[in-house]
Amino acid sequence: MSNDAATTATPPAVDGPPQEPAAHGIGASLPQADARAKTEGTFPYASDLWAEGLLWAAVLRSPHAHARIVSVDASAALEMPGVRAVVTQQDIPGDGAYGKRIADRPVFATDVVRHHGEAIAAVAADHPDTARLAAAAIAVEYEPLEPVTDPEQAFAAEPLHPDGNLIRHIPLQYGDPEAVGEVIVEGLYRIGRQDPAPIGAEAGLAVPRPDGGVELYVASTDPHGDRDLAAACLGLEQDRVKIVVTGVPGATGDREDPGFQLPLGLLALKTGCPVKLTATREESFLGHAHRHPTLLRYRHHADAEGRLVKVEAQLLLDAGAYADSSSESLAAAVAFACGPYVVPHAFVEGWAVRTNNPPSGHVRGEGAMQVCAAYEAQMDKLAAKLGLEPHEVRLRNVLATGDILPTGQTVTCPAPVAELLRAVRDYPLPPLPRDTPEDGWLLPGGIEGAGEPGAVRRGVGYALGMVHMLGAEGTDEVSTATVKVQDGVATVICAAVETGQGFATLARQIVQETLGIEDVRVAPVDTDQPPAGPAAHGRHTWVSGGAVERAAKMVRTQLLQPLAHKFGMSTELLQIADGKITSYDGVLSTTVTEAMDGKELWATAQCRPHPTEPLDESGQGDAFVGLAFCAVRAVVDVDIEIGSVRVVEMAVAQDVGRVLNPAQLTARIEAGVTQGVGAALTENLRTARGLLRHPDFTGYALPTSLDAPDIHIVKLVEERDVVAPFGAKPASAVPVVTSPAAIASAVRAATGRPVNRLPIRPQAAVATPNA
């Protein structure tokens, strides 16, 4: 394989000069540099890549949720014209298993199939149709086994994995177990299986290297993590595996599951040719991880004034067949099980267990979203029992800076929860629709629906949510960035992947603000660069943005020191703005270009936030770097005869620390709310005995533009977190966490029904006309 092929496969840079020269720096609504390319269809996604001598891959997947593999016969596939290779687990030279913290998942199933769609073998052929036909021709003899699909049954079931069925158990204990409140409310809640549902299905290209290694061109959100994992599974040293990040078509979780990458690398090594795979929509649903379905039992104790005394909860997360990120998700669920409220006594038990259901993993707001829906339902029940307004019982209990979480960690970051709640409470309610045929489209179900105006009831609901920032429980958060300046152009080199969260735009703004250089470019990402970590929990705004800022400041010092020395002043007395360098007294005035005088300046810097610690055997510990909060008021119209729901309006107030890019921030919040609408009303990846039903966008209903409500961002609280670069907080996860709970609260208000399941089923929204 020549180097020319690898060059052909390399995606072009997706970042470049600003589109609007007048707007730059922190606080400006700088447009994303890739917006035009995405609009025109020229953005380089992995499915667009090509290389000379390309072969196509297809993966054979199990039709069973649980089965013993008796035999695998690939002879018929290998005899087909155009087929170049078939690989199974027997061809894996390395460790043969992978995972986030626990390496428990084989690249290909060997003795036992543990979930529907698990990979059995992969084929490389000279045409995609040939590859798929060859995969289908592989004869596999299965002995079907009874699947374990109820996570409650997993405790007593036979072990589904050599590591057993229990992945993690956290028994959080805080306060006095004998404490009892005057008022007690209980509830049982179920949260469904939400899919990340990327618009672009997984794709990738593997190119063998002359040194016996391989290059993987994939839409990875954690390139160095994926490289290390691939090297271990393929039996290669890390420096012989290179990940090149292609354009990522948005990510709300683990964008590129390693289960798609590893067969590609293995086939490329075996054939000596570049190999490409483009997943079908069904394969995408079968292959990647989903939000954890969760069963939650709650008991809230309060005094006669509505102030919380004790919260008791049991949380059961269905991890599916393998561990993935279930340990982290469980930690977030347990830690935030009481919500952004002051709780003197808390006793929460959480479990994550293996089943034969589809694998669960990292999806935006994991763990926190599930418990938010449950604890907010409990707050509604408490308000009803005490005869209080839902917002009033919340205000009497809200968390503030200096309070202590049930994990024993003190909230040291800004926590303006009461201010957020008051902002959405006081925002004017939308007018009621007129009862006229012209406004029929406003009915739940739309103009062609079965709804009648007389059966429609309006409900208003509230929810408060919280998420943690960065990794947790001792995760070493670090990112490295390099800033180079030459010939009036600044280049940022950082392995932080742009997943749609706006990091590439933010990096440009930081350099513009610090160096006064308008033309800033962000280099494509690969693993030849130092690690920056995964794109999750707002990491890159904080950690990678902090590294870019430090590197830019170092370059600024290199630029200003000669001038300061020449004029006998310190660099602190010089400022850069709009491409000009001036002194405080006006004696010095020159341009950045003139000061550079043809030189190349560069600097590399790291950012590493303060460390955290794992939760101990009682669920105690300083496990989180920081927290972000959100309040949402939902207004819904419900047809109480047929159970259809229309979300009329979502009012959002959010704790953002500092607004870095107003337009980008607005887009992130609106997108998070819309994803929350899907989780509340339509998105549920259904299974029958572990088998996915309708793994496509016909059976899995995403909210469309017609389903998106009016979203009003009524307040952004800019109280800067002093330990965060720029003082900013992550923006998109917390509205995803909070919105489903607010919608469920509004449906409860409209119908009088308990609404204890997400997504909300029509039968749960049907009520008597007098409700």
UniProtKB/TrEMBL annotation:
Residues 40-146 form the Aldehyde oxidase/xanthine dehydrogenase a/b hammerhead domain. It comes from the Bacteria. Signal peptide: none annotated. Residues 1-13 have a biased composition (Low complexity). InterPro entries: Ald_Oxase/Xan_DH_a/b, Ald_Oxase/Xan_DH_a/b_sf, Ald_Oxase/xanthine_DH-like, AldOxase/xan_DH_MoCoBD1, AldOxase/xan_DH_MoCoBD2, AldOxase/xan_DH_Mopterin-bd_sf. Residues 1-26 are annotated as: Disordered. SMART domains: Ald_Xan_dh_C (SM01008). This is Xanthine dehydrogenase family protein molybdopterin-binding subunit.
